[in-house]
Amino acid sequence: MMKRLLAVFIARNKEFLRDRAALGWNLLFPVLIVAGFAFAFSGAPAPLYKVGVVGSAPQSGFFTTPQVQFIEVNDLATAVTKVERHRLDLLVDVTEGRYWVNDESPRGQLLERLLQGSDGSTLQKQAVSGRLIRYVDWLIPGVLGMNIMFSALYGVGFVIVRYRKNGVLKRLKATPLSAIEFLAAQIVSRLWLIVAVVVVVFFGTHLFVDFAMYGDYLTLFLAFAMGGICMISMGLVIAARIASEELAEGLLNLISWPMMVLSGVWFSLEGTHPLVQRLAQAFPLTHMIDAARAVMLDGASLAAIAPQLGVLLAMTSGFLAIGAWLFRWE
Amino acid sequence: MPNAMSALIEVDNLVKHYQGVCAVDGISFSIPRGSCFGLLGPNGAGKTTTVEMLEGIKVPTSGSIRYKGEPLGPRFRHEAGIMFQSTALQEFITVRETLRMFQSLYDHGAELDELIAACALGDFLDRDTRKLSGGQRQRLLLAIALVNDPEVVFLDEPTTGLDPQARRKLWELVRRIKARGKSVLLTTHYMEEAYELCDEITIMDHGRIIAQGSPDDLLARHFHDVVLQLPKNDFSAGCAADLTVLDCGDSVEILTSEVTATVQQLLAGGVSLDRLRIRARTLDDLFLELTGKELRT
């Protein structure tokens, strides 16, 4: 028994080691992940509080508190919503002499006292109120998005590669089925599965976690559906020609892990290195999660998330064109 | 050669190169309607490449393939049934679902109940395709090849790995296909199978055709003798100095066109003929003679 086991073990090792592409990805991938994390979280520890500032803040008094991160605000309305949702602890308009604080936020009240105790006594208070957006509220769109990403990439990309490797695609090629028909079937099949799973997970989770949902369900559905199509199309590009499951897995890992880490699934990208934020814009998951969060947490309308949907649409078109162009049955 | 009017498939000067290697080197033949056409050759002879070009899976480097007088196209895809040497099927679906899935890919389909009965799939229709035995799997693959009621069926080594009983059952199925006026292109490693099923055979080696014709014609063309087989222990070389004797391990084979005279010569030499066997030349012999190789190597 051991003899047979050893023979298979050695053969498998040889197979893996001789597949240089897969071996390369297996070695390179963890290095890239470590490097990515090191870059994203380089620099000083994150501050404890977040304060939005409209206008040019003086470099003295309250505005030099080291435990506070001061974030320049260009869109006042969005910033006020963030105060309502507890995503900003305080908002100060230096030019108009006003500040906004959420009376239901202990962190806001603490900062308000700090502001008034230093140089803020002349500023006029603008009280807002709003339910605390808990981490779980913020996390739900990210987790749903991540689930869609894995389902789309692996459910299509990996499966097509396996079909190619074991000859299923060759058998289908011998039928009247066209490549476009085959790819379309894969997209539609996976999309409806994704949508069904998201609906079940969303409402199932809602039964025991009372998470925030301020927007319209149809708009949210659209954000997830467009994100799903986009990432299925991305999976088709990966699977267009590869016949090695290990290489495909490596490539899918290379794509999915950075997306999972840098698309704002687990933490906000606010405060990360600008290059990381720019890189995140290249990921469809970022745009899908941004749109879903805007709908769920801010009650954003279809028009408000149109920019994210537009990016997803453009990416989908690109991925589909490349995937269809590259696709080979064998 | 059949005349072009009756040919279902015509192949003209077909060539296929792979990175400097010539796998198929300018072959031409035609497959008559309603016949079983056998393509034989040792491993690496180019027969699978040839079949895959005929099936439309591989693109020829040069030459032409015409189906019903037209280049291979959508019509061919709808009217051809293909059973590959090895095919994986989608997992977690049953035999019945697999048949339905494939049938739905075609405009025209065979009657499923008839197909299920003909291929004896009834006992495992609702079984996951991963859980089929070798014979069951081959029957399903054949049923998939027939699911569109094809005009021509490509069978690439359909009985490889089957036990003798399962092989004979599959032969019976092929005969039924032929009886319905369908054409069959068969590649096989088994000469007996080719002899039993094929109306015409083509033998390939090194990418070229080295013999073509009906099995009986080819045998008659190449051989004018029979084989006398004797256990080696019963044979004495001294009495057969002028005869062609082949050493076949535990036995010897004496090739002769004069059976009576040879038998008398052996008797005169004191050879015991108690265990003598006389057989006619077979396609195995022909193959060995033409290619110099054992077919199954």
Mean pLDDT of chain B equals 86
- The chain-level structural class of chain B is alpha/beta
CATH superfamily of the largest domain in chain B: P-loop containing nucleotide triphosphate hydrolases
- Structural class of chain A comes to alpha/beta
Percent strand of chain B:
25-35%
- Main-sheet strand order of chain B equals 6-7-8-3-9-10
Shape verdict of chain A? elongated
Total number of strands of chain A: 5
3D shape of chain B: globular
Helix-strand pattern of chain A, N to C?
Answer: HHEEHEEHEHHHHHHHH
Amino- and carboxy-terminal Cα gap of chain A: 37 Å
**What's the number of helices of chain B?**
10
Order of strands across the biggest sheet of chain A? 2-1-3-4-5
Helix content of chain B: 25-40%
The multimeric state of the shown protein is heterodimer
How many domains in all of chain B? 2
The most extensive contact between chains is: A-B, 13 and 19 residues
Brief synopsis:
Chain A has 330 residues and is an alpha/beta fold.
Describe this structure in words.
The complex is a heterodimer of chains A (330) and B (297). Chain A has 330 residues and is of the alpha/beta class. Helix content of chain A is 64%, strand content 8%. Chain A has two domains: 49-128, no CATH class; 135-326, no CATH class. The two termini of chain A are 37 Å apart. The relative contact order of chain A is 0.12. Chain B has 297 residues and is α/β, with parallel strands linked by helices. Chain B folds into two domains: 4-220, 3-Layer(aba) Sandwich (Rossmann fold), CATH 3.40.50.300; 224-280, no CATH class. Chain B has helices at residues 47-54, 74-79, 95-103, 112-118, 134-146, 164-179, 191-197, 215-222, 259-268, 283-291, and strands at 7-18, 21-32, 36-40, 62-67, 70-71, 80-83, 152-156, 183-187, 200-205, 208-213, 226-231, 244-248, 251-256, 277-280. Chain B has a six-stranded mixed β-sheet, sandwiched between helices. A four-stranded antiparallel β-sheet of chain B has the order 2-1-4-5, with helices on one face. In chain B, a hairpin with a 2-residue loop joins strand 1 (7-18) and strand 2. The radius of gyration of chain B is 22 Å and the shape is globular. At the A-B interface, helix 6 of A face helix 2 of B.
